[in-house]
Design brief:
The protein is of the alpha/beta class. The chain is built from twelve helices and 15 strands. The chain has helices spanning about 15-25, 40-45, 70-85, 85-90, 105-120, 135-155, 165-175, 180-200, 215-230, 255-270, 285-290, 315-320, and strands at about 1-5, 30-35, 55-60, 60-65, 125-130, 205-210, 235-245, 275-280, 310-315, 320-325, 335-340, 345-350, 350-355, 365-375, 375-385.
């Protein structure tokens, strides 16, 4: 299945573009699922059909789905209480009823990621179009699987599971129950689920489209989003320019906005493929209006770009170093910070931060320096004689 992730600054028309993309693909006979993340039914308003917790057919070959985070949270909490029943009884804790449960911060994001995973693995559709939240929330959402897996590995290292057989003995000696089996089982299940989401995001059939209105604010948003996505190893397939004004507009006062749009479009085309979506003169509502925005589709001819790779260049023979090359388009030197911590590298670029494990070869090296050139961060590593394999 091919997956198209659509995001952009708030109010740029990303939901409209997502709906038009899905509708156009369905009209071509592609079995399409449109997945929405908004709490309110903005997706339904664009489609002219109410959407919610149950997938709903819109037109032939098109289904829309807006997962219910509250229900998903209640189901997860009920399953957790069942698994932890022994510990809860020991502590004298009272169980929560489903009726008194409201989702905690982060529950909505986890519920949506699970829905994204399930939708991407479904064999009932050929295309998944995902209407993500605005750029800041979308980037945080896309970062969540990797960050949660890292937390799980730090708090419940998999290698400690080998001591499961000793826990009953240690519990009797200490006089208190040791961590129950369900704790590691739950962590392993979460890790598997999060890894599945990561696999969807890293899949070569997954593409990211940025929706923005051409102009100064939209240009800043696209630049920021592209940098944040690159730090996560995701490339921008297409910039969808929304609400593009016609060149032959009769009103003289539109000359300024049109000139601004043309400048932004020219700048975007130097870096990205650009698709223009015309301004209809009104807010699109219903399938007829969406059909007029066929330029937003592009589901067929444009192949998904390859994931952003971070290659390690071997320059030991020439310079005595290995160079880790990290693409960071649009990054500024004064907003860049690097920290080596054990076998991880902490990369901070402006408002974005990522902690990544070092490739195995670089773990046996020391950092010699770094430089930002032509939108690429190049970190130099020198082999540590005490750890590096000796050559004969």
């Amino acid at each position: 299945m091919r997956t198209i992730l659509i995001t952009g600054p708030g109010g740029a028309g990303r939901t409209t573009v997502a709906a038009a993309t899905a509708l156009t693909a369905a009209a071509a006979g592609t079995r399409t699922l449109l997945l929405g993340a908004d709490r309110t039914d903005t997706l339904g308003a664009a489609l002219g059909v109410s959407t919610g917790a149950a997938p709903v057919p819109v037109v032939p070959h098109l289904t829309a789905w807006r997962p219910d985070a509250a229900r998903g949270f209640r189901e997860d909490l009920a399953a957790f209480q069942d698994r932890a029943s022994t510990v809860l009884d020991l502590l004298g804790a009272a169980r929560l009823d489903a009726e008194e449960v409201t989702p905690l911060p982060g529950a909505e994001e986890l519920s949506f990621l699970r829905a994204l995973r399930d939708a991407a693995l479904s064999e009932r559709h050929d295309l998944l179009v995902v209407d993500l939240p605005p750029v800041p929330q979308a980037l945080a959402l896309l970062a969540l699987p990797e960050e949660l897996r890292r937390y799980l590995r730090r708090m419940l290292p998999p290698e400690r599971q080998a001591a499961r057989a000793l826990r009953p003995v240690l519990g009797r000696l200490a006089g208190v129950p040791m961590p129950a089996e369900w704790l590691y089982d739950t962590a392993a299940r979460w890790d598997t689920e999060l890894a599945a989401v990561e696999a969807v995001l890293a899949d070569r059939h997954t593409a990211v489209r940025l929706v923005a209105e051409p102009g100064p604010a939209g240009a800043d948003a696209v630049r920021t989003a592209a940098l944040g996505l690159a730090l996560r190893g995701l490339a921008v397939e297409t910039v969808v320019a929304s609400r593009v004004l016609p060149e032959a507009a009769a009103d003289a006062w539109l000359a300024g906005p049109i000139a601004q749009q043309r400048k932004a479009l020219a700048d975007w085309r130097e870096e990205f493929p650009v698709t223009e979506v015309p301004h209809l003169g009104r807010d699109p509502r219903g399938t007829d209006d969406l059909a007029a925005l066929t330029g937003a589709a592009g589901t067929g001819p444009a192949p998904a770009p390859a994931p952003v790779e971070w290659p390690v260049a071997d320059r030991i023979a020439d310079d005595g170093v290995l160079v880790w090359r990290i693409p960071l388009p649009g990054a500024r030197r004064d907003a860049l910070d690097l920290i080596r911590r054990g076998d991880e590298l902490v990369v901070t670029v402006g408002q974005f931060r990522r902690i990544v494990p070092l490739p195995s070869a670089l773990r046996r090296c020391t950092v010699e320096g770094a430089a930002l050139r032509e939108g690429e961060l190049r970190v130099r590593f020198a082999p540590d004689p005490a750890l590096w394999p000796r050559t004969r």
